[in-house]
């Protein structure tokens, strides 16, 4: 059976930081394991993290990514030197695959290639932890690519990597290499485990929608018959010279959900982020965006963020139904939490998600990050989300 161990730290020296995490998670005497997943803020030296991990855990496959802050069982941190890990033991019940050079136009093909690698490595994979480049891919096509190999019954959970919310470059790590346009997937094949996933955002759509009048895949070329970036920034009351980093905190775009999905989600809309713009004014959307799509601007509703979080956790606890939680993976958006003194405070929100999943006051092994987007099921299907809290609880029957 798979075993999970986590730790997090805020330490300047990258080698010491990864050593501290491995020792805290696994114990000083035996830091070797079969897999190490790393979330690290941009201030860390990624090659040094990988080299030290290889030294202390020579048997492990190592994967990781950049992020804009972490959440561990120790709490939340948003510095430039954040580091969190999940270490896993149980080599026969996991597999790792990766691809480089993934973009919007080839997201399906690259994800299918990665899924084929994963299935060849372990045909028993029944859930996939996915981490992809966070800037310029079509995330719905990534889901479709994985499902073309494993079928829609496999649960995909995870996130897209982030920088410091500037939308310039994000990074992925696989074994000894660091990439900028890669994706990695970890397949879990422990038959005693099930992953329960759910996401919530708490933003509200406002005003009249923008209409996509010209698009190519996940690139929006025109909104309301005008160059996309110019019209988008005009509606946000920003100059056209604004960067993606200027728009990300305030520019969530909303697509209307069906009544059935809205009832499950607790919101009438699913949100999307714009993480890149081209010199010609085209915007890179997080998913494919057909012409005719209506997109609403949104506002952050603090009360709704917290109320919807409590609703989601009640639903998750009911779905877990008393089973042992062996690990929690978590992806989140920086725009969530209490707003105070021009800063969004996350501690209370994190407490509200961790307390219901704790046992005898102990938070289970927990690996969370602030990224550009989240993968979680909606309506029984794999889905990509933005601006949410997404929780992925790996549960095991007590009798297993």
Task: Summarize the structure in words.
Helices cover 24% and strands 38% of the residues. With 400 residues, the protein is an alpha+beta fold. It has two domains: 3-199 and 306-396, no CATH class; 203-300, no CATH class. Strands 14, 15, 16, 17, 18, 19, 20 and 21 form an eight-stranded antiparallel beta sheet that branches. It has a six-stranded mixed beta sheet with strand order 1-6-2-3-10-11, with helices on one face. α2 (46-56) links the parallel β2 (35-41) and β3. α1 packs parallel to α2 (46-56) and α3 runs parallel beside α4 (139-150). It is globular and about 65 Å long.
Outline the fold blueprint:
Blueprint: E1 3-10, H1 14-26, E2 35-41, H2 46-56, E3 61-67, E4 70-72, E5 75-77, E6 82-89, E7 94-99, H3 107-121, E8 127-132, H4 139-150, E9 155-160, E10 172-174, E11 177-179, E12 183-188, E13 193-200, E14 203-216, E15 219-223, E16 226-227, H5 228-235, H6 244-247, E17 253-256, H7 259-265, E18 269-272, E19 276-277, E20 283-284, E21 294-300, H8 302-320, E22 324-332, E23 338-340, E24 343-345, H9 347-354, E25 366-370, E26 373-378, E27 381-385, E28 389-396
Parallel strand pairs: 2-3, 8-9, 22-25
Antiparallel strand pairs: 1-6, 2-6, 3-10, 4-5, 4-25, 7-12, 8-12, 9-26, 10-11, 13-28, 14-15, 14-21, 15-16, 15-20, 17-18, 17-21, 19-20, 22-28, 23-24, 26-27
Helix pairs in contact: 1-2, 3-4
């Amino acid at each position: 059976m798979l075993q999970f161990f986590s730790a997090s730290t805020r330490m300047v020296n990258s080698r010491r930081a990864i050593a501290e995490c491995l020792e805290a998670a696994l114990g000083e005497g035996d830091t070797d394991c079969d897999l190490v997943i790393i979330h690290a803020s941009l201030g860390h030296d990624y090659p040094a993290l990988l080299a030290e991990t290889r030294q202390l855990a020579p048997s492990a496959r190592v994967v990781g990514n950049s992020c804009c802050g972490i959440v561990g069982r120790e709490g939340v941190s948003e510095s430039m030197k954040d580091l969190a890990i999940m270490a896993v033991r149980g080599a026969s019940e996991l597999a790792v695959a990766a691809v480089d050079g993934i973009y919007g136009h080839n997201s399906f093909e690259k994800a299918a290639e990665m899924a084929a690698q994963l299935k060849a490595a372990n045909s028993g994979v029944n859930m996939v932890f996915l981490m992809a480049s966070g800037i310029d891919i079509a995330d719905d096509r990534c889901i479709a690519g994985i499902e073309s190999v494993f079928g829609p019954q496999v649960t995909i959970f995870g996130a897209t990597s982030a920088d410091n919310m500037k939308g310039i470059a994000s990074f992925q790590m696989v074994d000894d290499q660091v990439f900028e346009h890669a994706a990695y997937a970890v397949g879990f094949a422990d038959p005693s485990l099930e992953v329960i996933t759910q996401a919530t955002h708490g933003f509200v759509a406002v005003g009249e929608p923008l209409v996509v009048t010209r698009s190519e895949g996940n690139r929006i070329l025109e909104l309301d018959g005008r160059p996309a970036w110019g019209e988008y920034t005009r509606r946000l009351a920003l100059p056209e010279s604004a960067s993606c980093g200027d728009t990300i905190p305030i520019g969530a775009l909303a697509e209307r959900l069906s009544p059935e999905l809205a009832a499950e989600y607790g919101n009438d809309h699913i949100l999307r982020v714009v993480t890149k713009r081209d010199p010609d004014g085209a915007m890179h959307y997080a998913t494919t965006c057909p012409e005719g799509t209506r997109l609403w601007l949104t506002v952050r509703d603090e009360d709704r963020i917290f109320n919807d979080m409590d609703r989601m956790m009640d639903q998750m606890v009911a779905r877990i139904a008393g089973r042992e939680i062996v690990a929690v993976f978590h992806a989140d958006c920086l725009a969530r939490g209490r707003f105070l003194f021009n800063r969004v405070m996350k501690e209370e929100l994190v407490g509200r998600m961790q307390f219901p999943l704790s046992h005898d006051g102990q938070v289970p092994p927990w690996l969370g990050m602030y990224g550009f987007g989240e993968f979680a099921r909606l309506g029984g299907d794999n889905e990509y989300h933005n601006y949410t809290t997404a929780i992925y609880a790996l549960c095991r029957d007590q009798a297993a």
